[in-house]
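Ligand-bound model needed. GFB.
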Amino acid sequence: MDRAAKIYVAGHRGMVGSAIVRALQTAGHAQVVVRTSAELDLRDGAAVRAFYAQERPTYVIMAAARVGGIHHNASAPYDFLYDNLLMAANVIEGARHAGVQKLLFLGSSCIYPKFASQPIQESALLTGPLEVTNEAYAVAKIAGIKLCTFARQQYGCDFISAMPCNLYGLGDNFSLQNSHVLPALIRKMHEAKLRGDARLQLWGTGTPLREFLHADDVASACLLLMDRYAEAGHINIGSGEELSIRELAQKVATTVGFTGALEFDPAMPDGTPRKLMDVARIKGLGWNPRISLDEGIRGVYAWYLQHGADARK
Ligand code: GFB
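Prediction:
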């Protein structure tokens, strides 16, 4: 990418978007354009087209979405599908209409079939039924992937898409009900430690396996893809390592210093049993994650201790 050219990062206040802005600024990009959701509602097509006409960015990274953990996804499927569909359609079509040189659309590993063979290759997309708890979000993200693919096929747009695994990092959402598992465990164990609880109940059975990657590593992958990837299909971004929710809980307990018993509530959903992605293609482009899960959890806990109050949305 030309560091003097204007790049729009949609979703700059989110965990991933803010990591991408930091990475761009560190790399010397002088013109990073952003808009808060109050300034620009990405569900409003006319407003998005007016933004593109005003700013005319050369590059776009689409990191804005309505996101949440398993319970939030399962409890608000219409909102997750409608908002993410509109945001993807408006940002991608607005970029095509404005002649944006390159756009990167970010999705998630939940786009893959619930029982895809593991590790999951990009070719597994649409080969089987989705996990019901995040079907809405997945369908919206699959639509975004296809918009990028067909924009290239029909209009010659250099639009690419990338699918990260489960992410965590600074600025995450620590809501007890709506957050993803890693920040939820940090907050729940911290509060249980302060209360001196002898036990803590977590959701599900603890047996599902998940792959985690730090948002700063996703950001470095995004910048590399903007320079080195220009194919029609999406590409996976992941650590290539998985662990069970129980093993994750034990790591978080050690970091937080919670010594109570960990119990699991099978009345809460497990979600998909595994979603380890094959990351050979992005590693073949020269990218590798740099932040280990243990180091990452320590860093996020330190951030939470400093910002906990406003992180508990
Ligand atoms: O990150 P998470 O909420 O969503 O992880 P998914 C859910 C897993 O962690 C389930 C267990 O197996 C839960 O039973 N878990 C245990 C908990 N305790 C908790 C807790 O206190 N909070 C939460 N949230 N989980 C998401 C999709 O699926 O993956 C999103 O819903 C997105 O759309 C994201 O795709 C990457 O990993 O199951």
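The pocket of GFB is lined by residues 69-71, 73, 108, 110, 133-134, 137, 166, 179-181, 184, 188, 202-204, 208, 210, 245, 268-271 (CB under 6 Å).
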